[in-house]
Amino acid sequence: MLVETSDFLVAIHNTARYGVSLVELSKFQKDLATIATSEVLPDKEWFHKIKEVAQIKDRKGLQTLLKEYRNCFTHLANYPRKTMAIIRDESEERISAADLRNSDISESIAANLREFHFLEIPSSIKKVKLWKIMRELLHTAQCKCTKEDVKEFSLDTLKEEIKMLENAISHDSQEVRRCHNDLQYGNIAMDKDGTITLLNYECSTHNPVAYDIANHFCEMVANYHSETPHVLDYSKYPDLEERWRFVRVYLGHKEYFPTNAELERLLNDVEKYTLASHLLWCLRGIISNYLEVIDFDQEGYQRKTFIVEVTDFDYMEYARQRFQQYRLRKRELLVNSVH
């Protein structure tokens, strides 16, 4: 793999402006070695750092940089350029909340999500991270919250609740893939030709695909660009026909024809995993209310906390709505669900 990293640096040196030192580019050798031996993907900022050092001035040069990267790191050859979203077409714009209800756009999102889930990543350990992350969030919330918050959200008993939910909806036959985990409309772009691109993988970890779809469905009730961005309208949760269409396209991607039994099984799992989505984002809302958010590394582990700017977003009210929805749907969805 180190040969590949050297090849990449030489290739970039050859395309760089005259006078750029290969020694300067070698500063990226450690990063490249990590990329070559793991599933960690570089982000857009990382590429722009190399662009600055190599004094690549135009978009064409940056595209050449990415091409050389893909040529050298052959184990990432299966990553579609648009799915990586490292260099986006400038004609692409993020879609709106209303766009999620467009059947054509929704079907395209389903197909793109399936493609993302099936990207082959070498040495990737398919271990579900959802429950570990949720417990870490709970611990942080318990440390930050007031006694009133602990009582309102039952934080003192939520550890047992999370364990109960994990036992109730997890099963051996569920499909586990690397998931996006935050597929809201702000993380989806569309170009002038209607081509969809999934963006921002900060929360990406291995999880049941049913959870990723469930989280996307839950995001369809939000409009973060309204006058009250924290208010969720659950009348906009996709109806059975919309959910069925999404799952049918998702499972039927690449000319596979799913049976009705397969569709129903995934739909049932998706509905149950909405409960996990409600709890996880409830906890994130509570934590964000104290002007801190959780930062995750590529594997989804808590890395650090950092201060964020105060906005008009009422995080605690958002958390209340997610928690209330969890309670409302829990009894309905968990009947005879304990495995």
TrEMBL record:
GO MF term (any one): ethanolamine kinase activity
- Entry's transmembrane regions: none
Instruction: Give a GO cellular-component term.
Output: cytoplasm
Q: Which domain of life is it from?
A: Eukaryota
Q: Which InterPro entries match?
A: Kinase-like_dom_sf
Task: Give any single GO term for biological process.
Answer: phosphatidylethanolamine biosynthetic process
Could you list this entry's UniProt keywords, alphabetically sorted: Kinase, Transferase
What family does the entry list?
A: Belongs to the choline/ethanolamine kinase family.
Q: What is the name of the protein in this document?
A: Protein kinase-like domain containing protein
